[in-house]
Amino acid sequence: MRYIWLIPILPGIGAAINGLLGIRSFSRKTAGAVACTMMLAALALSLFAFWQLLGLPADARAFDVTVAEWIPRIPLETTNGVGLFQVTWGFRLDPLSGMMILVVTGIGTLIHVYSTAYMADEPRGGVARFFCYLNLFCFFMLMLVLGNNFLVMFVGWEGVGLCSYLLIGYWYEKKSAADAGKKAFITNRVGDWGFVLGVFLIYMTFGTLDFRAVQNAAATMPIETMHFGVLSFICLFLFVGATGKSAQIPLYVWLPDAMEGPTPVSALIHAATMVTAGVYMLGRNAVLFSHAPQVMTIVAIVGVLTALMAASIGLVQYDIKRVLAYSTVSQLGYMFTAMGVGAFSAGAFHLMTHAFFKALLFLGSGSVIHAMGGEQDMRRMGNLKKYMPVTFATMMIGTLAIAGIPPFAGFFSKDEILFQAFMHNKVIWVLAVATALMTAFYMWRLMAMTFFGAYRGPAWDTGHGSDVAVAATHGAKHPADPHAHGQAAKEDHEVSHGPAEPHDHAHDAHAAAHDDHGAGHGHGPWHGPHESPAPMTFPLQALAIGAIVAGFIGIPAALGGGNTLEHFLEPSFTAEHVAAHEGAAAAGEPAAAEGEHGAEPHVSRLEELGLMAFSVVIALIGIGVAQKFYVKSPEISDQLAERFGGAHRLLSNKYYVDELYNATAIAGTFAAGDGLWAVDRTVVDGAVNGAGKLTVVGSWFSGLTDRKVVDGLVNLVGWIVQESSLAFRRFQTGLVQNYALLMLFGIFAFVGVYLFVR
Amino acid sequence: MITPTHYMLLSAALFIIGVIGVMVRRNIIIIFMSIELILNAVNINLVAYSAQLQNAVGQVFAIFVIAVAAAEAAVGLGIILAFYRNKETINIDEMNLMRW
Question: Is residue B19 less than 8 Å (CB to CB) from chain A?
Fold first, then answer.
């Protein structure tokens, strides 16, 4: 496959067309069609490339394509002397990137299709802008996963960050969206700083940035079990990069706020693809990480703590997208846990299944929000299964998948991670299981509050005196809802730009509030919850099928499957086979991670099955508790919230992490800025002004000297000449004979001297 | 017998007469003639010593002096003529324009 470089280029072309022409002149349909066509073409090419990849023998599955020279050979210092810094626009398709391009183009295409309907009420140029950004994102994401060296990956890495910023801030007129975009971008910069440092260190150590070359070189280096050597530092820096992009502690704060973007964006970028870039990057550098077991431990701990923390916050959120956002953070934590315990393929497996069911859940929530006319607060939903059966059915599949109920996809991948964690470290396993319990709970809570119970949302009868007049001014009528007031506690509505808002304002604020609303979901008069149109339900159904079957490619041996995916991905996590036999211990299944339990390489099949059954039971308990709290007797949850008021407040406020960051990092930055400004104003400006003053004084003295001394000397000379000339000019009589007489006297004088004095 | 002393006495006498002429006379023509006397006093000296020392250089020098004197007289008379046309006089006391 010499043409794999076309896979990223195709969406890039789409972005260029929509960006250069579409924003000016395309209709909504044309813009959507261009974007979807490009994605479809990329998907077709990806499928073809993947099929070709499968045709190769298992240990040689890779296509390398170098499109062009990027940075020519520049002599640049490394620790082993002067190396040649050379970077190409090189692309590499191997099992890991093959899986990623299928996820990106496949889910990307579905979400593009979904967006054509979801964004149908946006202004015309806005739709083209949206599709331009979305295509651009796919371009960079494919570049990220296909790049065969760190710098090409970095281009994609930064590009997806940029697109994330642009898409979160898509409704840039809304301050919260613009702020969320900035927050995401700036937080990511912190991580990118680590990534760049890691890349620098890699070049310093290995003298190349090519993935394969680095892995082969690293495979021959000793495993740093006892000391924190250069490989450990590289891995630590890379992991800092991954925490930024993949929203891990301590840099996860941007992801929940990123829900300000349109829901398809949340599904594509902040659930399925971009946030998994960190996981992908760790998998891509599996050989490096296996040589740095201490960093692996850090990765596992950070991952499992993130999973636990985010899941616990998700327990009490009311905004449907925020629940899913914290769920995403939590599931990403799972993936990092897997990476940290050395189960790279399990992490990648979960990455893939998660992409399916989380994209599904996000799109489903988008469908719900769409149906509710922009409402995101789950307390104002309920019983929607009656109105939107397709959305309900598909979201139920997604929920069962993420909760880990067999035979849905999430079960296999999550169970693989739990199993590997159990083998590696029991504490991590306990925390991961607790997370699984919470996951099942909050997901069922989401389903219960949204689809079950009584309808609590706004009524949609048509006439309502005062509203009609207002509706005439801005074209859309908000559902009249005098009852909803009490429930809609304002502080829970951070993301909401729905119909609830205008009710809290006087009518003159209506138009302003409607700007938000119009940017969100103004789709004409609202006629109550309804099923979404086909372009939205079709991707839901397709993803639901994916959420059911995606797990089957990784059925573990204990259940009679071959764990196909693990064997398929294996070559991507090991150094090349030439190096493999000498570094077999290192490169095979990460020996560092295995070292601890190397003595017991295989637990019995019974034990494995027992663990599976246990995790299913845990998931069922979570679902059961949620069913009890939110469907059977909803008053229990309120009572619990009151009884454990402190804990509830702590969770509702997300452990006050944002406040902590505000008080420390952000306030510190502002204080430092103020301080530096003060230094600038007093010291630098003072120095400049002082220099100016000094110059003025100096020049005054200089002028004085010039006037008095220099001019004085010149004038003195002139004066002397003038005064003396008064006397001497008498000699110039003008009479020739006088001169002749003087000459004669002179001659007499000379002759006299000559004659008498000598 | 005429000795160099006689020549030198004659030359000195002519020279002094020339100098006094230059100093005391008012008529420029007379002053010019006095300058010629001075030059010829020098010429007598040159020729006398040339004969005395049997060296022709002195006589060559004298001829040069005569030639230069002729040229000088021509220039000088031209100046006098121009001056006369302006001032209608050749009194040297009137020629005092180049003073302070």
Answer: yes
Alpha carbon distances (Å) from B21 to A163, B24, B29: 115, 6, 11
Write the pLDDT tens digit of every residue in A636-694. Answer: 878 888 888 888 888 888 888 888 888 888 899 999 999 999 999 999 999 999 999 99
| Angstrom distances, CA of residue A613 to CA of A180, A249, A355, A412 | 41, 30, 24, 12
* Kind and range of the H or E run holding A87: strand A81-93
What are the structural domain ranges in chain B?
27-92
CB within 8 Å: A734 and B97: yes
Q: Which residues contact A756 (CB under 8 A, 6 or more apart)?
A: none
> Which residues does B69 contact at the CB level (< 8 Å), separation at least 6?
B36, B39
Task: Identify the three-state secondary structure at position A723.
Answer: helix
Query: What phi and psi values does residue A92 have, to the nearest 5 degrees?
Result: -140, 125
Check CB contact under 8 Å for A737 and B96. no
Decide which of A58 and A282 is more confident.
A282
**Exposed (0-12), middle (13-18) or buried (19+): which is A418, by Cβ within 10 Å?**
buried
- Secondary structure (3-state) at A34: helix
Cβ separation of A729 and B100 shorter than 8 Å?
A: yes
Q: What angle do CA A431, A437, A438 make, to 5 degrees?
A: 90
Q: Do B95 and A736 touch (CB under 8 A)?
A: yes
Q: Give this prediction's pTM.
A: 0.74
Is residue A104 a contact partner of residue A39, using CB atoms and an 8 Å limit?
Answer: no
Question: Could you tell me if B80 lies within 8 Å of chain A, comparing CB atoms?
Answer: no
With CA atoms as reference, the chain B residue closest to A730 would be: B100
pLDDT at A756 over 50: yes
- Pick B100's closest partner by Cβ from A732, A737, A744: A732
State whether residue B95 sits within 8 Å of chain A by CB: yes
Tell me the C-alpha distance between A277 and B57, whole Å: 115
Q: Kindly list the residues from chain B whose CB atom is less than 8 angstroms away from the CB atom of residue A744.
A: 19, 23
Q: Residue A516: how many CB atoms within 10 A of its CB?
A: 21
- Chain A CB contacts of B95 below 8 Å: 734-736
